[in-house]
Amino acid sequence: MSNNILNKSDQRTFGDAYIKELIKVIRAEGKDSSGKLVRSIDYRLKDTVRDISILIESEKYLNYIDEGRKPGTYPNISDLKKWASVNNISQDAVFPIAKSIYEFGIKPTNIFNRTETNVLNGRAFDELEDNIADNIEEDLFNNFNN
Q1: Is residue 135 part of a domain?
Q2: How far is Cα 28 from Cα 108, in angstroms, rounded to an integer?
Q3: Which of 53, 31, 50 is nearest to 116 (CA)?
Q4: Distance CA 21, CA 109 (A)
Q5: Helices (H) and strands (E) in the chain, counts
Q6: In the beta sheet, which residues pair with residue 106?
Q7: Quick one: 60 and 8 in the same domain?
């Protein structure tokens, strides 16, 4: 049996749907004030015999948005200054914000889990399941005829 249950077109369709939903969730959380994060998001799909993984490529702070940040370390001050500038926040507030992050951390948003749930319950995934079923059926038919 071959490993072609998900062709390249299906993979791209799924990847595009995932990224579109991820961007929607990020914006709903108000986590992309400059647009830089959303513009940086891309993906690669890793197809193995057992599964297909989507690998997200983006600005490094996407993980902090998703997982939050535990107290006890200061954020990068130059990045915080840029963020404050984009959001029309006084540069005088940068160090108090950094201290607050150091003391209290940042609450996680779990955007990856929410994105995955939304995609798996959406139309794109339903179409993908249908295509996979068709591909498996075709593959089995071809193997039995050989």
Answers
A1: no
A2: 14
A3: 53
A4: 15
A5: 7, 2
A6: 69
A7: yes
pLDDT of the chain along its 146 residues, tens only?
A: 344 556 777 778 888 888 999 999 999 999 988 888 999 999 988 777 677 788 899 988 899 999 999 999 999 999 899 889 988 999 999 999 999 999 999 999 999 999 988 888 877 666 766 767 766 677 677 777 76
Instruction: Examine residue 146 and state whether it is found in any structural domain, yes or no.
Output: no
* Model confidence, pTM: 0.73
Place of tokens 């319950």: 121
**pLDDT at residue number 12:** 81
Q: Does 101 lie in the same domain as 86?
A: yes
142 neighbors 135 (Cβ within 8 angstroms): no
Structure tokens at 134: 């068709």
CB-CB contact of 41 with 22 (8 Å): yes
The parent domain of residue 89 ranges over 71-106
**CB under 8 Å to 124, separation ≥6 — which residues?**
13, 14, 17
Asked, for residue 138, whether it belongs to a domain, the answer is: no
Q: Does a structural domain hold residue 46?
A: yes
Counting the structural domains of the chain, the total is 2
Residues 101 and 45 in one domain: no
